[in-house]
Amino acid sequence: MNDAHLHLIVNHFPIVGLFIGTLVLIAGLLLKKTEVKLTAFGIYIFSAIASAMANKTGEEAEEILEEIAGISHSLIHTHEEYAETFLVLAMILGALSLIGFIAEVKKLKFANFLTVLILLFAIAAGVSATYVGTSGGEIRHTEIRDDAAVVEHESDDD
Question: What's the pTM?
Answer without folding.
Answer: 0.87
